[in-house]
Each structure stands twice: as C-alpha cells, then as structure tokens.
Design brief:
Blueprint lengths: L1 E3 H8 L2 E4 L5 E3 L1 E2 L10 E3 L12 H6 L4 E4 L7 H7 L2 E4 L3 H15 L3 E6 L4 H12 L5 E3 L9 H6 L8 E5 L7 H9 L3 E4 L13 H8 L1 H4 L6 E5 L3 H6 L6 E6 L6 E8 L5 E7 L2 E7 L5 H16 L6 H6 L9 E5 L2 E6 L5 H13 L6 E6 L8 H15 L3 E5 L1 H12 L7 E4 L2 H11 L5 E5 L7 H8 L1
Parallel strand pairs: 4-5, 5-6, 6-7, 8-10, 8-11, 9-10, 11-12, 12-13, 13-14, 18-22, 19-20, 19-22, 20-21
Antiparallel strand pairs: 1-3, 2-7, 14-15, 15-16, 17-18
Helix pairs in contact: 5-11, 13-14, 14-15, 16-17
Length: 462
C-alpha cells in the first residue's frame, strides 16, 4: 500500500499527533526486524510481544511513521529528527484491519476468500495458479490467514493487481465474519467441513455455522463455490443470495470429475465436465482429496472468466506448499511429509494416500497427536487406530500420549502388536524407524502442528 497520512488518519479514525498530513508512506509492517525504510509501522500488541517497544528502533531505521495506541510511546524528538509522523488510535489491531479494508475498497480488485477444515492452502495455491494465467494475482503468503495475516496480505495490494486470493482461517465464532468484512470477497470457497478447532467450538454444527460466515458475507453479485460431495457445505448453500457453482465427484455438480485414473509416477488423470465443456486434466501430486481442491480451483477460475483451455496451464503453475503431501527420498526410501497439521478427516485422507501409493517395499504410517479436538479427543484417536487396522498397513508408529491411544486401538482391532510402536518422543521414533525401515519402503508422516512430526523426518535424514 502506498498512501498519504491524511488517508491513513481517516481510514483508522486516528489522531495525527505529529507530522505532515501530506507525507507519504510505501508499505506497511508490524515486524521491526523486516520493516524497510519508508514503510509505516503499526504497533501490534500480543500475548508475547508489543510493537510499542520498538518505536524508537524503527524510526531510527527510517520508518516513515508509526501507528500507536499509547501516547506515552511517541518519541517526539525522534519524530522531529527524522521528519516522521505518528498517528494515535484506540486499538492498533483494529487500525491495521481498517487500513486493509480501506486499501481493498480503493482498488477495483476481485477477491476470492477461501476457508474450510482441510485443503485451504492447497486450494489457494491452485486458484492463484489458474487466476495468474490471465490476471495479475496477489495471494496469501504461506498461511497468513488470521486477523493479522489477512490484513497484511491485503496491504500488499497495489494498482497492478486484478485478483486477490485470500485464505481465511478461524478457531472461534465471528472470526470468518470479521475477515470477510475486511476483505469483502466476491467469490467464496468452502473446501469441506469436519471436526477441528473443537476447543472453542463444541459441535460440528458450530464449526459448520462459523465456516458458513463466508457464504453469508457474499452479496447478490457474488459467487459461492460449493463442494457438492460435502453435505455440510451443500447445506450451507441453500437459500444463499449469491450465485452458486457446485463441484464434486460423486454427486451431480456443475464442475464434475470422472474417469479418474492414477498417473505415473504420482498424481491423477481425469476428465472435468465444466457445465457443457469437457477438459482433460492432469494433477501431478499425491492425494485423491486434491482432486476436490483442483475442482474448486477450476470452478473459481470459471467464475473469474478463465478459459477452459487455460486451466491445465494454471494448475501447472501451482506451487505445492511444504509439509503437504511432500514427497522426499532418502536412502532409497520414500518419505511423504504431510506433517503440517492434522484432524480426523485429514488423517483418514492420509491413510487413503498411503494405501494408494505404489511402492516396492512396506508401508509405515507415522502419526503424532491430533490437537484441538476438545471432548472428541479420545474418541477421534481410537477411531484412527481402528482405521489403521482396517487398512492393513505394514507398520503403525505413533508419537505422543494422544496418539498412543490410536496405537492401542489398532492392536485391539486386529493389527499385529509387533508391527505397532507407541513412542514418547521424536528421537524414539527416529531410532525405531532407522532400525525397521529399509530400502523400498514408504513412510508417511502426519500430525497436528504442535506434534512437529517433521522433526522425525529431519532426524532420519541427518
């Protein structure tokens, strides 16, 4: 964002304490370590940080100005010395969000908002790849999808951008609604809905309602991209004022995949029926569930006006994010790093991916704890163990106290005890796998973010 102080002050309803209203800034940041000269510094406060402590530092490093919520944090002499400005607001987080909303409203950009229990980041990357075929496209970097990250993404918009593809995460009611108020999406995508974030949200119906805040934010001119194979998403689409485009595999949909077959060395070939058109698609990545993400991207691309013959080219530009079905090779073993996060549905999807994977040797499922499941925690891990036993995998290795329940459940449901290892920490898992895994084997690693299962992979590859 490039603007002047007068616009900033109006956008955040702030008081210009010192400086010239006609002064300019180019770029907005909240991290003193990465702020560049000429940028605006917003003093965000959190549980473990407070931007007000770095006002002097950023001004000495040539920040154009600061937004603060404490008058006593304004160093007047430093402002005078560097000819900088200071704007006082009641709440700096609110100011960051309001400034982002202002930037979104200033530019004729079309915004795609994406939420869902699983697949948000991958779908975001696929949509950005397809949109980028025709339009200058901004996308959420990494997983900056919360009440701070989304505003920062919007503040990267400039006059060259035509489309913004924004991921929207949440853990409690009202959070998606607030993100949608800031971003004003023209297109809303809900990938799927299942058990997750069950600490603040106690039931699946509550999760559904919170995800549905994205669809509710769409205007009559907007478009809802609807997973026809997910009954909870399908139910949210009933009675919407926005236009709907459905996608799926099993249920009739506007955008439908058929003739699905595995491709070598990994991925799928399939046919997409896009209303009255047929598209031969190639998806060079693991995970049957990623076909759904690709269909959501195709439906969104169609809504943006991308021609059908450009869809494959767009997916070819898509950048796979790390720790999402990432295939690695080590000592003639295949390691599938799917360790970024986990919940019951994504664990089932990971099992399906491992089951479908063609490998000369044996298959190891290496699972860490699933977090944020509230009262469902024990039941979810017991169900996971049952599912592992039913898959008939060669080895099941768990790390952590919650995942131990899954290991015990797998044995009770028929998995040989000598093929199950319930371990306490990452190093134990490394030692076990170094002893048991051999050339030609495939090992898939999965767990919630707090389980940090990538550490087992790092230990194996050292």
């Amino acid at each position: 964002m490039e603007s002047d102080v007068a616009t900033l002050t109006r956008a955040v309803d702030g008081e210009l304490v010192y400086g010239n209203a006609s002064a300019h800034f180019k770029g907005v940041g909240i991290d003193s370590r990465t702020l560049e000269p000429g940028q605006l510094f917003v003093c965000i406060q959190g549980d473990r940080f407070d931007g007000h402590q770095f006002v002097q530092q950023v001004l000495d490093n040539k920040a154009s100005g600061v937004v603060v919520s404490r008058r006593e944090s304004i160093p007047m002499e430093t402002l005078k010395k560097h000819n900088a400005f200071a704007v006082l607001v009641p709440d700096t987080l609110q100011a960051l969000q309001d400034l982002a909303a202002c930037q979104r409203n200033r530019l004729p950009v079309r915004v795609v908002g994406i939420t869902g229990t699983n697949g948000k980041s991958t779908t975001k990357e696929m949509i950005a790849g397809i949109a980028g075929v025709r339009f200058q496209t901004l996308k959420t970097q990494g997983n900056l999808n919360n009440h701070i990250g989304l505003p920062l993404s919007l503040l990267e918009l400039d006059a060259s951008h035509e489309v913004a593809v924004l991921e929207m995460g949440m853990s409690a009611a009202g959070e998606i609604r607030r993100l949608a108020e800031i971003a004003r999406p023209d297109i809303g995508v809900i990938t799927n809905i299942s058990e997750a974030h069950m600490v603040h949200l106690k039931t699946l119906k509550q999760v559904q309602a919170v995800k549905g805040e994205l669809y509710e934010a769409l205007s009559v001119e907007g478009t809802a991209i609807v997973n026809a194979d997910d009954p909870l998403v399908r139910d949210l689409a009933k009675g919407l004022r926005a236009r709907t485009i459905t996608y799926g595999i099993d249920h009739p949909a506007d955008v439908q995949a058929s003739d699905i077959s595995p491709r070598e060395p990994i991925g799928f070939d399939f046919t997409v029926t896009l209303f009255d058109q047929k598209i031969a698609m190639q998806l060079p990545m693991l995970g049957y569930y990623n076909i759904y993400n690709a269909l959501a991207a195709v439906a969104t691309g169609h809504s943006l006006g991308i021609p059908s013959d450009a869809m494959n080219a767009g997916l070819a530009e898509f950048q796979m994010m790390s720790q999402r079905s990432e295939v690695l090779h080590h000592k003639s073993m295949t390691l599938i790093n799917d360790a970024y996060n986990a919940n019951p549905q994504s664990m089932r999807q990971a099992l399906d991916t491992l089951q479908r994977f063609q490998v000369a040797g044996r298959k190891f499922f290496v699972a860490g704890d699933m977090w944020e499941l509230g009262s469902l925690e024990e039941e979810a891990h017991l169900r996971l163990g049952e599912a592992v036993a039913q898959q008939g995998l060669d080895y099941f290795v768990t790390v952590g106290p919650r995942a131990r329940l899954a290991a015990e459940s797998s044995i009770k449901n028929g998995m040989p005890a000598n093929r199950v290892a319930a371990l306490d920490d990452h190093q134990e898992a490394v030692d076990y796998l170094m002893h048991h895994a051999k050339s030609g084997d495939c090992l898939l690693f999965k767990g919630s973010r707090g389980a940090q299962m990538e550490k087992v992979i790092e230990g194996l590859m050292q």
